[in-house]
Design brief:
Blueprint (H helix, E strand, L loop, with lengths): L1 H56 L3 H12 L10 H24 L1 H5 L1 H36 L3 H8 L22
Helix pairs in contact: 1-2, 1-3, 1-5, 1-6, 2-3
Length: about 180
């Protein structure tokens, strides 16, 4: 009788560990998916910024060269990327965008260009999608971190090697960013 009780308790503990591990894997995959979505949106935004940089080329060659050099430093954000890498890419994009907007302010004919307007609309669309993807990522991290930190699930998380994930930080340069309205 005692053996049956011990086996039943052991089975319950094993099933609990399996359940927690499955829950952690599921939440971690949601975090990876959300980060991957950020990468997809940032890639599209980089493409739009590259098109805007090409538009500035005929107006200000020096500024175009500087923008092109910054764009060349871009890195792909994938499901395996961390929050710091995504934040660094966001900072770089904001730097490029503010430079492009500054050039457009100096050259009203560039700002009035139909291509400039359409491309800036695309940048704004992708920026909104990145913002939404960043919120989804942070929500996913909250859900994951809650499991990793709460007792008794924290015991299983520690045993299986799951660690808290970092949140994406608020983009500080957004407060200083010039208006992109045309």
């Amino acid at each position: 009788m005692t053996a049956i009780i011990i086996i039943a308790i052991a089975a319950i503990v094993v099933l609990w560990f399996i359940g927690v591990q499955r829950k952690l894997v599921s939440k971690e995959e949601l975090c990876k998916n959300a980060m991957s979505q950020i990468g997809v949106q940032q890639s599209s935004r980089w493409d739009a910024l590259t098109a805007l940089a090409e538009l500035t080329k005929s107006y200000n060659e020096h500024e175009y060269g500087t923008i092109r050099d910054v764009i060349a430093q871009r890195a792909s954000i994938t499901s395996g990327s961390n929050a710091k890498a995504a934040d660094a890419q966001e900072d770089m994009m904001n730097s490029v965008l503010s430079r492009i907007v500054a050039v457009a302010e100096q050259y009203p004919e560039l700002k009035a260009s139909e291509n400039y307007g359409k491309t800036m609309d695309s940048v704004n669309l992708y920026e909104n999608q990145v913002r939404t993807s960043r919120m989804v990522y942070n929500d996913s991290v909250t859900s994951f971190n809650r499991i990793v930190r709460q007792f008794p699930d924290s015991i299983a998380a520690s045993i299986f090697g799951f660690r808290e994930k970092d949140y994406l930080q608020e983009v500080k340069s957004k407060a200083e960013m010039p208006s992109m309205k045309i």
